[in-house]
Fold this sequence. Notes:
Strand order of the largest sheet: 4-1-5-6-13-12-11-8-9
Structural class: alpha/beta
Shape: globular
Helix content: 25-40%
Distance between the termini: 22 Å
Amino acid sequence: MTRPLVGIISNSYLINDEYPSHAGGTMNSEAIAKVSGCMPLLIPTDPNFVSVPELLSTFDGFLLTGGRPNVHPEEYGEAATEAHGEFDRHRDAIVLPLVRACIEAGQPVFGICRGFQEVNVAMGGTLHPEIRDLPGRNNHRMPPDGTLEEKFALRHSVKFTKGGPFHRLLGAEEVVTNTLHGQGIKCTGRRVVIDGVAEDGTPEAIYIDGAPGFSLSVQWHPEWNAANDPVSRPLFEAFGDAVRGWAAGRTARGLKSA
């Protein structure tokens, strides 16, 4: 049986600091294949190679991955500063309109880290360039040293809105997650609902109010140890269920028009 297709947003990357490539973390593909039960395919996120209409007609859902470059602040009406870090304008050009199209159509979209921020910006929201510089906030960035296990270790709690979608899905009002990000939500976009916050008040889980399809996004990295982590696994399972539902609907729509 053919698995539904999940497009994984890739990042621009230089191999050996000189060879241009589009890259994606293996753990993203593993989470989609092993936990969501879908076929993962990397998308070369560049408008010179792909278009949003093509992506919508090809894939059944999209995983918006994390990445070192940040959303360019011009996308939310602010000037770039040194604190905003690196950018990937090609990714901005593809993902921001893709998010809006998915939300409108009900096509499943799952945002992680930068993807979480992209969803907010796509809906008209803004970002803080550096969370750790805000009064009362913690340093949410990846630890500079240590093994991968240490970098992705559980570091803070996230508290969900009682009765909200994350509480219902995970069966808990509070969970513990990893944290590997520098930026974060400043002002929410249209219909963006903050459903989970860290101990210092940093938004960590959002959904789109009234969205006809899966629209959950998280600021942490659930793709790490997704098959075994009690917080990560239900997220990817629910996403997979939504993608299968969309694929079945696509097939049904195709049969009706035949």
